[in-house]
Each structure stands twice: as structure tokens, then as C-alpha cells.
Design a protein that fits this description.
The complex is a heterodimer.
Chain A: H1 2-11, H2 14-31, H3 36-43, E1 53-63, E2 66-73, E3 85-92, E4 95-102, E5 114-119, H4 125-133, E6 139-142, E7 158-164, H5 168-177, E8 182-189, H6 198-206, E9 211-216, H7 217-220, H8 225-231, E10 239-243, H9 246-258, E11 265-268, E12 282-287, E13 292-297, H10 302-308, E14 326-336, E15 342-345, E16 351-354, E17 358-366
Parallel strand pairs in A: 7-8, 7-10, 8-9, 10-11, 12-17
Antiparallel strand pairs in A: 1-2, 1-6, 2-5, 3-4, 3-6, 12-13, 14-15, 14-16, 14-17
Chain B: H1 17-37, H2 40-64, H3 70-96, H4 121-134, H5 165-174, H6 176-185, H7 187-191, H8 197-225, H9 230-256, H10 274-283, E1 287-289, H11 292-297, H12 304-309, H13 318-331, E2 338-340, H14 341-354, H15 359-365, H16 377-383, H17 385-388
Parallel strand pairs in B: 1-2
Helix pairs in contact in B: 1-10, 1-13, 2-3, 3-9, 4-6, 5-6, 8-9, 9-14
Chain lengths: 368, 393
């Protein structure tokens, strides 16, 4: 990673940047109303100085419903720390969908690639697509890696990882990248064959690099906090990183708090909350830039709700045909008043919606 | 034509309120059917059209660097003309309609797209998407009826200036992109003192800046890059612009001006229902029949009826739903106006020429032929309860 930083620094001295900007500006006179990158991106989508993208260069099935996707990131990729996640934009049935995935590969890959490991979740638009339909060569959209689920610079002497299902992915990134001396991994999966990276984890255990406790929930049931104490007798001496379903993490947080060790636990949640559209009633709609919150009925348009609250809403035909009222939905869930189609947005998505034909179907945050 | 409210024989007199509601429900179902199947195939289509357009533009302009050689001039000008037409019609017009917003690709989105046209995208979206598509063919509300410089309906009051309108139409055709910019700026309204001066000049500065950038590209930068081919490249770019202007103007004239297209009076849309709005779009638009190439080059505005019914559906799907829409017309006893391009353009031009003269002169000229009669408004209201009664939407 240090090497990469040096490389990035050397290409962006003020003088070269200035010259490049001027050249781009001149090229813009030739290509207007398009910009030069509209042409360049078709040919070299991974070049420096454009939106960050990546190309799928490898697909490795891990279990019957999980696949590792190896991605060659664009030139501007700034690297990642083991345990961090990345936002990935994939076109599924023609629609760009953004999701976050933990990086499961080690940081020191010679080919500069990163890998994410995706488990197909029930009704998962993107995970299902990646597991079943992803193709090598496809260009995907990326954001820089981020997230605080990382090991401290001074590695703790004793570490415990508690994971379940695809929660192993960020932990695998850490295990592959970091030299840790005393590691216990307690991992839950439905059956032995459902364990993602099962072979690699067992090999690590066989080499004595980790102590592996596999729990197969179809036969052993779900892991409880009290049981964890029994499985890991020196729990109190270990710093713990946990990733998995919300109820497991909730139970761990309660247990660690009760024992006064909350500061020794770090958790990673994949989906903060599942957005379920409400059929009737009303929801809180926040117009964040106007600092207004209104209680909007599920049967009136967001345009009417916003105007009623004195927000300066862009508008046009008010019947869904002119697209003059389109604004970003920062977070939340809306329903199309014409056909009932539901659109959801997670933070960072900024899904553009037509306010004149969309009603709140849950709490919404609108970028106005 | 004359507004259907002033016609002796209304083409919708046979439809009841219930019929019009049912019509709306059927059209909503067609819309649903496309929304449900919209996907990867459509996304691939628009990306392919964009790729072809960019390759043609890049290739055409590349060849024009050597436009001193006549074959290069001809090939380059042809490629550039086609590229400009595709850019304005199948890509620009339709992207700005939001037809591709569903892909959530910020590079192909109505809020970010800018096109190779004198009028800036934001201004055009207002005058076109909002005013024209909402008030389609309503006299006094839809300025696309003659663009404020022509009389294209018997019910528009004749003024002596209209005598020269065939000339205006010809000039507008050759410089259509500037005509659209002036129209979007509401130059006429400003000159008549009905538009706020500050607002007008703020908008005008934006338009002029865009025109300057476009003109610099076509008449300075590319000619300079062509070196000794400077003058031929200027000529090539001017030609491509005029070819694009003439083509788009002709296609657009076919949309609402040919014989058979109906217009509506201002009061007729008060309290208009969804079905009523659909009905107005059906009667107020005309298609062009032809092959696949014509449809692509016209931006699928050859399916103007389908486009006006569903302005936000992807253009590549209009052809697919056209048979269903046509069947609907037949079942509801309505006329699906369509014809080959030459016929439709001629019909539109004939109307521009005919209506350059006042109605009473026309009537004398066509004595013995069916006469245009005005019916008292009350009678019309009785005949057309849904459209004129102000029933709740």
C-alpha cells in the first residue's frame, strides 16, 4: 500500500495536473457538448482521472450459493485496509444497483486486484445476479474502500473472530493479510459444505495458524453468548471482531456490555435495516437541505407534501411525464402512485425519483 | 383542421364517459406491460445507439480533417449528418424525456444530458416536456401549434403577417436549431413586452453561450484542425447542421400538422380525466409509416402517437406496442393518422400554405366542398361531457 501511495503522488504534481487540465479543456472544445472522457471511458474505463471502476477478472465459486469475484480496480484505487468494505455498482436487468461488500482478498496481491465474496441472499437482486450471472470482463462501478472494521496498527496479542454466514468475508481479508499470533475463529454456517472458505480455514487450523471452531447450525443450533464463553474460556483476554446477522451481533453486544467489556468488541453489520414499504398511514419525510421534516401520507405525492411544508420543490407537468421534478432520494422507500412500484434507496445511492408521482412508503430523506 | 369542439361532426361524439375511462385503463395496461419487461435488452439498445453515434461522429470528423479531397468531404459530411441526426433524435430527445432514467446511469440521464443543439437541455425540457406534452394541441396553451410564427389551425386568428408563413417555415426549417432556441426563450413574448426583461436576458445569455461553444466547435476548432482543409470543413459542418435541421423539422412537422390531426379549445381541458388526456394525445398526433431505418433516424417519432401516449417509455418499444394501440383506435372508432413521410410532409406544407390565407378566402376557394361550421359551445358541451364538463379527475 505504501508503494501505491508513492505512485499516486508522483503523477499528481501541480505542474502536470495543470497541464493535463488545460489539455482536457482544449479537447473539450472539440467534443462539446460531450466531454473527452465520454469517448475515453468507452476505450479505457479503468484509467486514472475518471469515475472509479473495476473489471471482473475472475469468478471462483466458494459454495453452492457463494462466489468470489476478483476485480481489477481502476488506476485511482487508493487501496484498502483488511476488513474494510467497498461500494459496488452493478447493472442488473439494465438498472444500476449499488451494494456494499467486504473485501475478502489480502492487501498484498501482486496483480493489484481485490476480491469480494458474495452469498446469494433470499430475493437479493444484486447478490443473486453476481452469484449466477456475473461474467468475466464486465466493468463495474466502484467507490473507494471504507469502514472501521479493521485491526489496530498495534496488533493485539489475542484475537477472537465471531462470524456467521458471509460474515466471514471481512475476517478472511484480515486473516489473509495480517500476521496474528493467537487467533480463535468461531464461525457458524448451516452445514459444513455451506462454510465459505471452508477448505482454506481448515488448512489454516491444520497448520496451527488459527484455532477454528466450526458450528453447523442445522445440527447444532444457533450460537448463544453464554455458549461462546464456554467455547472460548479466555474470552475476556481477547479483542473480538464480529460480523454476521443482526441478532447474533445484538446478543454479543448485550453480553459484552453486561460484562463491562463493550470496548473489546467491534462489530460489522451488513444491512443496517431492511426497508419494508408501508401500505397506508404516513411517514416522516426529511428534506435535508431545507431542514424540514413533514409527516406525509402514503397517498399524496412527495411534491405536494414538500410544497405543503414550504420546501422549494422543482416541478413541471405534475402528472409524471415531464421529469421536471426529479430529485435524489438519499435514503428511504417510495411508491409510484400510478402503478405501485416500490423504489428504495440506501445511504449513498441518491436514487433519482419523480416527486410528482411518488409517495412516501416509509421514512424518506430527500436531497432538497 | 379546426378544434374538435368547433366541429359539426365531432370524432369523439360516440364515446361516453365510461368509454373514455375504459380507454385510459386499457392504455395504462399497455404501459404496465412495457414497464414489467423493461430491462437489459433495452439498456443494451440505447448504449449501442450511443456507441454507433459516437463512432460516426468521431469517424466523420476524422475524415473531414482531409475534406479538401471531395470523396473525403462527401463521406465525412454524410457520417456527420447522420451522427447529428441520431444525437438529436433517437438519443437526445429521448434521453431528455427521461426515457432512460430508469437505468440509473448518471451518464445517460435526463438530469445530466446535454445535446448538440442550440437550445440548452434544461430550457428545452421545460418548453417541450412540460408545456407541449401536457397541453398537446390545445390552442393558446401548446405553442408547438405553429411555434408562434405560423397559423396551422383554422381556429387561430388570421393576421396579415401570416401571408409570408411558407417563407418563415422554410427559413425555420433550414435554421431549425436556432428556431427552437428562440422559441424556448420565448423571443416573441419578450418582443411583445409580455416576458420579464431580466429573466429573458438571463436565459438569453445561457443560450448565446451555448451557441458560441457549438459554433466555435463546428466553424473554428475543427476547421483549424483540418489545416489546409479549413474552408471545406466549415462547409461540411454547415451542411451537416442544415441536413440535421431540415430532417428534424420535417419529422416534427409530421407529428402534429398533417391533415387528420385534431386540435382542442382552451376550455376543453378543464377537469380533464386521465382517459381524456390519453384521448387528446391519440387524436392530436400522427405517425409516419416506413422501415426500421426511418424509425431510428426519426428517433421513433414516427410513432408520434405512441410517444405522446407514453412519453417516458423507451423509444425502442413504441414499434412493439403500435399494433396494440392501433387496435385500440379501431375498437373505439377513432382514426389512427399515419402515412408515408413524403405524404405527411406534403400534407403539413399544404396546410402551412393554405392557412397563410384567411378562412373566408379559403371558403370561397373551396366552394362546393365541405364547409367548416362553427357550433355553439353549449351544444358541444352536451356532446362532449367528459372533456368539457369539468368532471373531477
Amino acid at each position: 500500500m505504501a508503494l501505491r501511495d508513492v505512485n499516486t503522488a508522483s503523477t499528481t504534481t501541480p505542474r502536470t495536473r495543470g497541464l493535463r487540465d488545460r489539455l482536457v479543456e482544449l479537447a473539450g472544445l472539440v467534443t462539446t457538448p460531450l466531454v473527452p472522457s465520454d469517448y475515453l471511458d468507452r476505450v479505457v474505463p479503468l484509467r486514472a482521472g475518471t469515475a472509479l471502476r473495476g473489471r471482473i477478472v475472475g469468478l471462483h465459486p466458494e459454495t453452492h450459493d457463494a462466489v468470489t469475484v476478483v476485480i481489477a480496480p481502476g488506476r485511482d484505487w487508493a487501496g484498502h485496509e483488511p476488513g474494510q468494505y467497498v461500494r459496488l455498482g452493478v447493472d442488473v436487468e439494465g438498472v444500476r444497483q449499488w451494494r456494499t461488500y467486504s473485501i475478502s482478498s489480502s492487501t498484498g496481491r501482486e496483480d493489484g486486484c481485490i476480491a469480494i465474496t458474495v452469498k446469494a441472499v433470499h430475493d437479493g437482486v444484486v447478490s443473486g445476479h453476481l452469484v449466477r450471472h456475473a461474467r468475466i470482463g464486465t466493468v463495474v462501478q466502484l467507490d473507494q474502500a471504507t469502514g472501521g472494521f479493521v485491526l489496530p496498527a498495534v496488533r493485539p496479542a489475542k484475537v477472537l473472530f465471531v462470524t456467521a454466514g458471509s460474515g466471514i468475508t471481512p475476517v478472511m481479508g484480515m486473516l489473509r493479510s495480517s500476521r496474528l499470533t493467537d487467533v480463535v475463529v468461531v464461525h457458524s454456517a448451516r452445514t459444513a459444505s455451506d462454510v465459505i472458505f471452508g477448505g482454506e480455514l481448515r488448512a489454516m487450523a491444520a497448520r496451527g495458524e488459527i484455532t477454528l471452531v466450526e458450528r453447523h447450525t442445522s445440527t447444532d443450533g444457533r450460537l448463544g453468548a453464554a455458549e461462546l464463553e464456554r467455547l472460548v474460556p479466555d474470552l475476556a483476554q481477547r479483542r473480538t471482531w464480529a460480523c454476521g446477522p443482526g441478532d447474533l451481533l445484538d446478543a454479543l453486544e448485550q453480553h459484552y456490555a453486561a460484562r463491562g467489556m463493550a470496548d473489546r468488541l467491534c462489530v460489522e453489520r451488513f444491512r443496517p435495516a431492511v426497508l419494508v414499504p408501508t401500505e397506508s398511514g404516513s411517514s416522516a419525510v426529511t428534506f435535508s437541505r431545507s431542514s424540514r421534516v413533514v409527516d406525509a401520507s402514503t397517498s399524496i405525492s412527495l411534491l405536494d407534501a414538500g410544497e405543503g411544508a414550504g420546501v422549494l420543490m422543482p416541478s413541471g407537468c405534475r402528472m409524471g411525464i415531464c421529469f421536471g421534478c426529479v430529485v435524489p432520494l438519499r435514503e428511504g422507500v417510495v411508491r409510484d402512485l400510478r402503478d405501485g412500484a416500490v423504489t428504495t434507496a440506501a445511504p449513498g445511492d441518491g436514487v433519482l425519483i419523480q416527486t410528482c408521482v411518488s409517495a412516501a412508503a416509509g421514512a424518506c430523506d430527500i436531497d432538497l | 383542421m379546426t378544434t374538435i369542439q368547433n366541429k359539426a361532426q365531432s370524432p369523439i361524439a360516440h364515446l361516453t364517459d365510461e368509454d373514455i375511462t375504459a380507454l385510459g385503463v386499457e392504455l395504462d395496461a399497455i404501459r404496465e406491460q412495457i414497464l414489467a419487461s423493461r430491462g437489459e435488452r433495452d439498456a443494451a439498445y440505447i448504449r449501442r445507439v450511443i456507441d454507433v453515434q459516437r463512432a460516426l461522429e468521431l469517424g466523420g470528423r476524422g475524415v473531414l480533417l482531409f475534406s479538401l479531397f471531395p470523396p473525403a468531404w462527401l463521406a465525412g459530411t454524410t457520417a456527420l449528418s447522420i451522427a447529428k441526426i441520431l444525437e438529436n433524435m433517437e438519443i437526445g430527445h429521448n434521453v431528455l424525456h427521461g426515457q432512460w432514467d430508469w437505468m440509473r446511469d448518471p451518464k445517460i440521464h435526463s438530469t445530466t444530458w446535454e445535446w448538440d443543439n442550440a437550445t440548452p437541455a434544461t430550457m428545452w425540457k421545460h418548453s417541450h416536456n412540460e408545456l407541449h406534452h401536457t397541453y398537446t394541441n390545445v390552442l393558446g396553451r401548446d405553442n408547438d401549434l405553429g411555434y408562434g410564427i405560423m397559423r396551422v389551425d383554422e381556429d387561430q386568428r388570421w393576421k396579415p403577417g401570416y401571408i409570408a408563413q411558407p417563407v418563415w417555415n422554410f427559413v425555420n426549417m433550414c435554421f431549425f436549431q436556432y428556431g427552437i432556441a428562440a422559441y424556448d426563450l420565448e423571443v416573441g413574448k419578450y418582443l411583445a413586452g409580455r416576458k420579464d426583461k431580466d429573466q429573458f436576458w438571463a436565459e438569453a445569455r445561457v443560450v448565446l453561450a451555448k451557441i458560441r461553444t457549438q459554433a466555435t466547435r463546428d466553424y473554428v476548432v475543427h476547421p483549424l484542425l483540418s489545416g489546409p482543409s479549413f474552408v471545406p470543413t466549415v462547409a461540411a459542418n454547415a451542411t451537416a447542421n442544415v441536413v440535421r435541421n431540415v430532417w428534424t423539422h420535417s419529422v416534427i412537422m409530421c407529428g402534429h400538422f398533417p391533415e387528420g390531426v385534431e386540435t382542442f379549445s382552451k376550455t376543453s381541458i378543464e377537469g380533464e380525466t386521465r382517459g381524456g388526456w390519453y384521448l387528446r394525445q391519440m387524436l392530436g398526433s400522427a405517425n409516419i409509416s416506413g422501415g426500421r431505418l426511418l424509425h431510428i433516424m426519426s428517433g421513433n417519432l414516427s410513432f408520434q402517437i405512441e410517444h405522446h401516449l407514453f412519453p417516458d417509455l423507451p423509444s425502442n418499444r413504441y414499434q412493439e406496442i403500435a399494433p396494440q394501440v392501433q387496435e385500440l383506435f379501431e375498437r373505439y372508432g377513432l382514426t389512427y393518422t399515419s402515412g408515408p413521410m413524403v405524404k405527411q410532409v406534403a400534407s403539413a406544407w399544404k396546410k402551412v400554405m393554405r392557412l397563410s390565407l384567411p378562412n373566408n378566402l379559403l371558403r370561397k376557394a373551396s366552394e362546393g366542398v365541405a364547409t367548416v361550421t362553427s357550433v355553439p359551445r353549449k351544444v358541444v358541451s352536451a356532446v362532449l361531457p367528459d372533456v368539457t364538463s369539468g368532471a373531477a379527475a
